[in-house]
Amino acid sequence: MAEPDDRDLEVLLRQLAPRVLGAVLRRSGDFDRTEDAVQEALLAASQQWPARGMPSNPHGWLVTVASRRLTDQWRSEAARRDREVNAAAMQPARAEAAADADSRPAADDTLSLLLLCCHPALSMASQVALTLRAVAGLTTAQIASAFLVPESTMTRRITRAKRSIQEAGARFGPPPDGDYADRLNAVLHTLYLIFNEGYTATGGERLHRVELTSEAIRLTRQIRRLLPEDGEVAGLLALMLLTEARRPARTTEDGALVPLAEQDRDRWDAALLREGIDLITATLPRSAVGPYQLQAAIAAVHAEAGRAEDTDWPQIVALYRLLERRAPSPMVTLSHAVAVAMVDGPAAGLELIALVGMTACLAAVVRAPLTSILIVMEMTWQIHVLPSLMVAAVIAVFLNRFCFAANFYDAALAQDGIKLQED
Q1: Which letter does DSSP use for residue 49 in this model?
Q2: Which pLDDT score, from 0 to 100, does residue 2 have?
Q3: CB–CB of 283/231 below 8 Å?
Q4: Helix crossing, 330-344 with 358-367: angle to 10°?
Q5: Dist CA 141 CA 43 (whole Å)
Q6: From CA 202, how far away is CA 165, in angstroms rounded?
Q7: What dihedral angle (degrees, nearest 10) is formed by the CA atoms of 210, 213, 215, 220?
Q8: Which pLDDT score is estimated for 272?
Q9: What pLDDT was estimated at residue 357?
Q10: Where are any strands of DSSP class E within 194-238?
Q11: CA-CA distance, 56 to 75, in Å (whole number)?
Q12: What is the residue extent of each domain of the chain?
């Protein structure tokens, strides 16, 4: 048994968690208890493997331990006789055999688990929260940060979600074909959030968590294989690929963010760029255009520019105009305004923001996912088409996201002679 590095162990356990949960859940059918048992198995692995070495079959080890924990739970609760029969079927010897059988890659289990977490009995917020916990392996605190709610509130939401799945009689396994469309929006949104957490982590010392972006891309590829004609699935995958391609050039050696205009484009991942560009180029003409496709198209325009000054900003403006029609929001308007400012000057950009109200844009900045904020920062940090004080104030809002930043923004606007429009 090899002694795993702490970092390697964390990555491995994150990758194995949904597969182990799927493997045990497929036999038990009890989501709530199975998830608890798998968490105990993961904790045991994190404590035992560094000291005793990693087993030759990590997935099988976790399945075996989780199965035993589940058996112990059923016994301690004095379950009904049929539960006792199921528990007896999961005795350690049988569990070892099952673990060996399940040691192969369990991609289908992971996908089935993803779809189960997006069961129609749950609200979209609960679907997203549960999937982030069960599939992505985020902590409850990280999920609470993404939703901007207290950790205790998120704990209750996840607990209720697991209970609702149980009460709805949902079974683990591929849902009926007709259910894929009903669950797809929540699934795509969940994968988008998983990717965001990896691209700009809300906790920890690292800006990037490659294991999460890789997992989001992997799961999105699986969904696309199931729904190859769905334009939004292809759009989301293209968006992820094009965004991930910029990661090597996105920060300095000390972790500081590098603006898009200053990034060394030779460091961008050429293979991911080509795959993303080809995918969105092939998808747009044959599908009903949706928000993910439009965001991917915008990323592709940036990717196709060999230098920052070669960026086709008029095309980006046109794409943002379409995006505002399909999925209007203050953050989209803010990004649109930056593009307009690049084409027509700062006054035109500020006028666009004024149409929806500066206060709404500020509120969106404070509430927006950090990834969305940093993408705008990457676009605007070093451009000189905005008044300098306004740029500084925007950065203050982006970096601090506290109430006093809005006051600083007001002061900057006033000094630049711009009246803040109230909603």
Answers
A1: H
A2: 54
A3: yes
A4: 120
A5: 17
A6: 28
A7: -160
A8: 97
A9: 60
A10: none
A11: 30
A12: 1-105
Query: Per the structure block, which two tokens stand in for 227?
Result: 């729904």
pLDDT greater than 50 at residue 388: no
Q: Strand, coil or helix: what is 420?
A: coil
**Token code pair at residue 328:** 């209007």
Q: What is the DSSP string of 5-22?
A: PHHHHHHHHHHHHHHHHH
Confidence at residue 413, expressed as pLDDT on a 0 to 100 scale: 39
Q: How many residues does the chain have?
A: 423
Q: Which of 99, 135, 98 is nearest to 116 (CA)?
A: 135
Which of 155, 139, 140, 226 shows the shortest CA–CA distance to 188?
226
Q: What is the DSSP letter of 416?
A: T
Q: Is 230's pLDDT higher than 70?
A: yes
In three-state secondary structure terms, 329 is coil
Q: What are the two backbone dihedrals, phi and then psi, of residue 105, each rounded to the nearest 5 degrees?
A: -55, 135
Lowest mean pLDDT among 18-27, 71-80, 102-111, 308-317: 102-111
**Predicted model pTM:** 0.69
C-alpha separations of 271 from 126, 233, 407 in Å: 36, 20, 44
Place of tokens 């305004």: 337
Q: Highest mean pLDDT range out of 182-191, 220-229, 354-363?
A: 220-229
The span from the CA of 21 to the CA of 7, in Å, is 22
What DSSP line would sit under 270-307, residue for residue?
Answer: HHHHHHHHHHHHHHGGGS---HHHHHHHHHHHHHH-SS
What type of residue sits at position 351? E
Tokens, residue 42:
């993961």
| pLDDT confidence of residue 392 | 39
User: Strand, coil or helix: what is 379?
Assistant: helix
